[in-house]
Specification:
Immunoglobulin-like; 2 domains; alpha/beta; about 350 residues; TIM Barrel; 4-stranded mixed beta sheet
């Protein structure tokens, strides 16, 4: 029995030696490597930094790595991933981990406006003009916005008026609802802010103005469930009337309304507004929005925006961005993620 065990031991040793020999041969073959290191990944598509400022780049790698800038005169980077913008221009941050190398583009700019991303004025330029009015829209465009967002109500008289609140109290100082106002009576209820006043616009006036300027209209439907049917048809016809099919987006947080436009007016672009703050279920809503026919996806909270969410929406054929922000850091993050649009209601854009 001991002899049998000894013979088996010698046989096992020979097999191990043969296996090791062939493994050594494979390792010597050019191009063959057993990959031990994890793939180098970044948390964004690119890095955008204002000149003279710094930003943090996160690098994911399972082991120690080296990091450097391809041009230190444009951007410097520390081992911790802190990128400093030295002068306007473009270079790359290069990361080496073992035998693997990866890089990411860095853009140094003097202002956010240097980006080609679509900037949208939230309710126009509401910091300086009465919100949701033609003067507010004009102010936003003059300041550098590529378009404006405005809110739309269907009134009891079946008119389509541009206004945000259901009540007129805050902006017009009247104890009425916007649904009680008609296209004829609206001149009585002036929108007031910052020492200025303007009339409540109709949808026709808002779309006509933006059409003449060649700018984008983001039409936010208030009480979107009542926009299914004749009101939705009027909206679609107004967009067509001013040849704004390629420059108008009808959006809301109601999937049924989006589905109505998708089936009855497939030429009209629609967007889904994600109103929840949690970032964990965003991918599910992106897929639901796509199934309903949405071509745009609006994140309401900056906490729900991530590189992976933006990329998923774009991979599904939608454009994606943030509903609104007042923070410069959030704008830069969205540029890094490759967002298609950013909506602002604060003076962040500089020509």
């Amino acid at each position: 029995m001991n002899q049998s065990l000894s013979a088996r031991g010698r046989s096992g040793s020979r097999l191990l030696m043969i296996f090791s020999f062939f493994l050594l041969l494979l390792l010597m073959v050019p191009g063959f490597r057993m990959k031990a290191e994890a793939q180098i990944t970044f948390d964004r598509a690119e890095v955008n930094v204002l000149r003279g400022q710094t930003r943090k780049l996160k690098v994911r790698c399972s082991s120690k790595y080296k990091i450097r800038s391809s041009d230190k005169s444009i951007a410097k980077v520390t081992h911790a991933g802190i990128v400093t913008g030295m002068k306007n221009g473009t270079c790359r941050i290069i990361v080496t981990c073992g035998s693997e190398t990866a890089s990411i583009q860095v853009n140094i700019m003097s202002s956010i406006r240097s980006s080609e991303t679509l900037f949208i004025g939230h309710r126009g330029y509401q910091d300086r003009y009465p919100e949701n009015t033609i003067s507010s829209f004009r102010g936003a465009l003059n300041y550098g916005a590529g378009g404006v967002e405005f809110d739309l109500w269907r009134t009891e008289s079946n008119d389509l008026l541009v206004f945000h609140d259901q009540s007129l109290a805050r902006m017009c100082k009247y104890s009425k609802t916007i649904e009680e106002v008609t296209a004829k009576s609206r001149s009585k209820y002036k929108v007031r802010a910052n020492g200025k006043k303007d009339v409540i616009p109709t949808l026709d006036e808002a779309v006509s103005f933006l059409s003449k300027k060649g700018k984008v209209a983001f039409i936010h439907l208030k009480r979107p469930h009542v926009m299914i049917g004749s009101a939705g048809d009027m909206i679609a016809n107004c967009i067509r009337k001013y040849n704004m099919v390629s420059k108008a987006v009808v959006f809301c947080s109601n999937l049924d309304t989006i589905a109505y436009f998708s089936s009855h007016h497939p030429d009209i672009q629609t967007g889904y507004l994600y109103l929840k703050s949690s970032k964990h279920n965003v991918p599910d809503y992106i897929k639901q929005a796509k199934s309903a026919g949405a071509s745009w996806f609006f994140h309401y909270y900056s906490t729900s925006v991530s590189y992976s969410n933006i990329k998923l929406a774009q991979q599904l054929g939608m454009k994606a961005g943030l509903y609104r922000t007042i923070k410069q850091k959030t704008v830069l993050d969205l540029l890094d993620y490759g967002a298609d649009f950013i909506m602002l209601y604060h003076k962040l854009i500089k020509k």
